[in-house]
Amino acid sequence: MQNGALRRGSTASIISSVALAAASATLSLPLWSHQAHAQATKNKAPAQQSRPDVAITSPLVAVVSIGRQRVTFYDKNGAVAQSPVSSGMRGHETPQGVFSVIGKEVEHNSNLYNDASMPFMQRLTWSGVAMHAGALPGYPASHGCIRLPYGFAERIFKMTKFNTRVVIMQGEVAPMPISHPNLFQPKLAEVSASAPTSDATTGVTGDLARPDRPQPSFRLDDPSTTPDTPMMLGGRLAKPEVAEATDTSLRPQKTVISPLQAARAQKQAAVERSVVAAKTADTAKLVHKASLAEVGKVFRGIGPAESTQKKLEAKAKQLERAATLAKTDELKEKALADHAKTVAEAAAAATAAADARTLLVERKKAVTVSLEAAKDAEKARVAALAEAKAAERLVDPISVFVSRKTSRLYIRQGRTPVTDMAITIKDPQKPIGTHVFTVMEPTDGGHGVLWNVVNVDAAGVLQAEAPAQAKNKNKKDEKPAQRQTLTAAGVGAAALDRIVFPPEALARITPYLQPASSLIISDLGLSVETGLGTDFVIQTKGEADSIESQRRWAEERRNGSR
Prior knowledge:
The protein is of the alpha+beta class. It is built from nine helices and 22 strands. The chain folds into two domains: 3-174 and 396-474 and 483-558, L,D-transpeptidase catalytic domain-like (Beta Barrel), CATH 2.40.440; 264-394, Orthogonal Bundle (Helix Hairpins), CATH 1.10.287. Helix 1 (9-27) crosses helix 6 (459-473) and helix 4 (259-325) runs antiparallel to helix 5.
């Protein structure tokens, strides 16, 4: 939250207390001021902090504070690592908002700034913003990137993954645990599998493994139903098995799994099919290559055979003439014998040449057949690979974005758009802020998940709420317990209160909910940085620069300079 967003007078005291409460949730640090920042730049950069003794068992969320010039990485237990940074200098300010890691390279050189070295680069935008190791003079000095100390950059590079959330803001707000009825929870739908499969975990193949198959939810209204109770399609309790004298090994087995498990089974099956398809395509290519080689071999043999035939036929004519001109019976007899032998050899050569030409036609037909087979195998390989990629996306964390600006809900999974639809937002003219909710870990054996929230930009919401709070505070008949206390978590909950999620959206979201899944609510629309291979990008500051950067990039590509 920026200090400039705070008002003076009675309103200022309320909002300042909220800002202090939000900031203290990070590491109990005071709000940053320009004077403090100026003083800090004269001193050496503070030592890096980390929590190496605690294993990271949940998604990471990085919060970059431009005002404090530092980054803090959080997991479900709090701050994991913290370090000073150097952000963009004046004229090259680092964009602010919600980003994620979309690319990683141990060794990278800038294609914008004189091939500058950017070790342990973690890309945040395609237009050139990244986190990487670099010089830290103690103040903003980069061209828009976030420079990190070398050792810290190397350590963090190993900890982060694609889609690790990176929030960049002027102030500093730590992720906070939050629970709310509107925060998605897993919808544990069941799939009944009766056929034996190669997947011992899920027991699902074929049509049952399709994630788009409609899946009814568990019926937990029956007191006799527990999460461990076998369920069948339709939410009915499975009948207990009755002991029989017959062989029970042939009896169909009922396996209950969630759509996410089905998606994982589908991914495994698709990967196996893609491997088989790739091997088939490679074999088909080898067969085609061998067919081409055989055609070449036969073709190269035709010429010598025809040449031999012609030579023998010419020789036969010479011998025939020699027999006619022979002066003695002995010479004539010898010439006729040689002629007969040569004629036979010429006939054999002619037969060999004809056979070679016939074989060439057959070999060319075989090449045509092998070529079509290779093309079909390659198409099957491409299709199987696409299927495997699509199946892989289904097991990736799902991302949801709600925009007050467009009144639409967007869904992405595996950094790929899934769908978008209209959504109802209560009081649509009232600011809602920008809030990032992240699933940190499953609970209750996967029947629930824990969320946290980062309030990226709530200044407008706080300003809108402060006058009403101040007015209520002056009411003499109001009891203190009835006064609303506005906190950072409360702002996130207030944003959730205003969203009415469509049932069709919940049906696509909840079955695939897992750690690192996220929900973003914002007054803003999608940034131009949201595109191929990215999660949702929402810029609270710097969107105009991104638009201009992409315009220049497109122009340079058209001119052939890139």
